[in-house]
């Protein structure tokens, strides 16, 4: 195997931030200590001295620092450094067969466990503390809704087999690659153009899921013209963000293994925080304040997880 290309060195200047940042934002090993910044991410130790995350912008709705967007936990690679793409593709087909069983086993495994939507057995204390929900009902952000068991275990199996056939690509933002892989259908947000563009039509196998998601959100299926399928391999994360303002409601459905879904919003000089366990086959809705005020993120998990995210379009102000 050819030697792995070196990580791209961050260019100087305010438009960049070294691959560091955040709870999903830790600096790469050897880059020194990182201090907290106003965005709750970390100061880039290797970046311009003392500067907070340079691309954090309230207008932009999230920190635009490349590794933050990529959720790469400091391990993001430049697109040009992708050396194992072909190998990963070949592994996909095999993984599609294995992942459901393996993912289920990682959190307590077996078809019997799958029949129980609420309780999520986990195999280790560490895994338990990583995903334990931490809010009381009162702490839920307004506009956040959660439904366990939106789909059956059999439906989940069929959908996961479908994901294995999709052309998932590492999430890319300004040349940096995240550890999660994605594919978008219907409408897609083009980060460079800053606008929605037409993507491939939503595949037939996802349409019944869209109906279910729409029913959960009280919307007609056609009101969800965008769908994003995301694969989180063990260790993959998504950093703190709000979804793009061009979108309206966000409905996320989880597959294979659970994750901890974290929420935070500014409360003076501090962050108010909440977290919820997203079980496989469950759905959540982000609407109102949960969508427009609170940020969300998912820390790296120990087992493979897929999510399907449906989004409506923001209604024109009237
Ligand atoms: O995987 C999930 O459920 C969340 C994904 C997400 O927040 C996003 O793609 O904006
Ligand atoms: Fe999101």
TrEMBL record:
One of its GO terms (biological process) is demethylation. GO terms for molecular function: demethylase activity; dioxygenase activity. Keywords: Dioxygenase, Oxidoreductase. InterPro entries: AlkB-like, AlkB-like_sf, ALKBH4, Oxoglu/Fe-dep_dioxygenase_dom. Residues 1-38, 73-95 are annotated as: Disordered. Residues 223-314 form the Fe2OG dioxygenase domain. Residues 11-24 have a biased composition (Low complexity). Pfam families: 2OG-FeII_Oxy_2. Residues 1-10 have a biased composition (Basic residues). PANTHER family: 2-OXOGLUTARATE AND FE-DEPENDENT OXYGENASE FAMILY PROTEIN (PTHR12463:SF1), OXYGENASE-RELATED (PTHR12463). This is Alpha-ketoglutarate-dependent dioxygenase AlkB.
């Amino acid at each position: 195997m050819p030697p792995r290309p070196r990580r791209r060195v961050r260019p100087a200047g305010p438009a960049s931030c070294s691959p560091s940042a955040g709870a999903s934002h830790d600096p790469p090993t050897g880059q020194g200590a990182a201090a907290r910044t106003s965005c709750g991410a970390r100061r880039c130790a290797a970046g311009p001295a003392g500067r907070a995350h340079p691309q954090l912008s309230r207008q932009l709705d999230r920190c635009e620092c490349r590794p933050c967007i990529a959720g790469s936990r400091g391990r993001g690679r430049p697109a040009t450094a992708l050396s194992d793409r072909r190998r990963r593709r070949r592994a996909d087909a095999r993984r599609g067969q294995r992942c459901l069983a393996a993912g289920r086993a990682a959190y307590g495994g077996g078809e019997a466990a799958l029949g129980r939507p609420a309780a999520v057995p986990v195999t280790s204390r560490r895994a338990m503390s990583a995903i334990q929900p931490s809010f009381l009902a009162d702490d839920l952000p307004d506009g956040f809704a959660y439904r366990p068991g939106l789909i059956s275990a059999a439906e989940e199996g069929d959908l996961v087999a479908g994901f294995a056939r999709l052309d998932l690509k590492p999430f890319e933002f300004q040349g940096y690659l995240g550890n999660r892989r994605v594919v978008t259908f219907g409408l897609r947000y083009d980060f460079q153009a800053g606008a929605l563009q037409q993507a491939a039509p939503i595949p037939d196998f996802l349409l019944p899921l869209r109906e279910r998601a729409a029913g959960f959100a009280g919307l007609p299926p056609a009101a969800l013209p965008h769908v994003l399928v995301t694969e989180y391999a063990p260790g993959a994360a998504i950093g703190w963000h709000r979804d793009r303002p061009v979108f309206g409601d966000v409905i996320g459905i989880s597959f294979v293994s659970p994750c901890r879904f974290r929420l935070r919003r500014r409360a003076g000089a501090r962050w108010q925080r909440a977290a919820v366990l997203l079980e496989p086959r469950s759905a959540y809705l982000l609407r109102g304040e949960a969508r427009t005020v609170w940020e969300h993120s998912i820390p790296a998990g120990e087992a493979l997880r897929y999510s399907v995210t449906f989004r409506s379009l923001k209604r024109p102000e009237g």
